[in-house]
Amino acid sequence: MTQRINVPTRDQVSENNQAIFDKLEKGVGFVPNLYAAFANSDTALGNYLAFQNAKSSLRAKEREIINLVVSQVNGCRYCQSAHTTLGKMHGFKEAEILEIRTGVASFNAKFDALAKLTKEITISRGKPSQATLDNFFAAGYTQGNLVDTLVVVGDKIVSNYLHNIGQFAIDFPLATELEVEPALN
Are residues 104 and 38 in the same domain? Predict the structure, then answer.
């Protein structure tokens, strides 16, 4: 694997990005390589963080489900690893995380509907079946939740693509690799 996008240090980025690096260092304890890669642009890191941290009708656990599923479908080892760590911080067990990454959450009907919809949206490039949408709404989700789901899918696609193209080092504990075909069941 050859790194194709640089991971700049604090002194190699704009003044605005240096301030963001300082906030990340204070809040997270380090600047994740993914965020540093965004800082190759003077504006992308701030824009991405604002997008990623925007208010949502989805709870943190639901957002992690989306992040895990999309990262698995897109084959992004960086985001699989980062969101496995975050998923555990939000209360998911390792076995649940592995199952979620396959697009299923059999341990919770509502989460299962979200995982299945997320997988289908990602694989079909935004064209899920009516049955999958009906299942999502029957599980208790709203049209607003659907829009927020799409926002999180879009967020994760951006970061997945940045790492898949950039091939920079993964600075989270490496997630278990799954042998799962991205095709719908």
Answer: no
